[in-house]
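Amino acid chain
________________
===
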Amino acid sequence: MNIGPDHLRGLERLYAQAPVNQIFRSRLTIPEAGKAEIRFEITPDMFHAAGAAHGTIYFKMLDDAAFYAANSMVEEQFVLTTQFNLFLTRPVKAEALRAVGRWVSGTRRVIIAESRLLDADGEEVARGQGTFMRSRILLADLPGYSDGPA
C-alpha cells in the first residue's frame, strides 16, 4: 500500500482544527503511514482531586494516537473507534508527555492500532489498544483535511 504525504498532512490539519483540541492543546505529527505522535503538556487544570492527571487525558491522547495511526492507513474515509482498552501504569503530574501510536493490522474492515504514553524520559506511563472501522464519512468532506498546509 502506497500512502501519499498529502493524506498524512491532511490528517494533521484535521486534528489541529478539531474543536476538542482547543481544550486539550496538543500537536499531532504523522511521520509515515501507520505511525502517529502527539505531544502535549499536563497542567494543573487537568488534575483530579488527588493532584494528578485525570484519566480522561490518558484516554484522549492514547485513543487519538492509535486512531491517527489507524486512519493513516485508510485514505478515503474517516475511521471510528469501536473499542479501546486502556492500561494506566502510573499517575502523572504537570509535565510534557507524548503519545505514540502504531498501526498493528487490518485496513479493510477492522483496523487494530496501539499506543503508548511516554514521559520526558521515555518511560511508559500508560498504554492502550483499540479497534477501528471505516465510516461512511469521507475525509475530503471534512473541514481542514484538504485545506492548505498543516
Q: What stands out?
A: The helical segments are 5-17, 20-23, 55-71. The chain has a mean pLDDT of 95. The two ends are 23 Å apart (CA to CA).
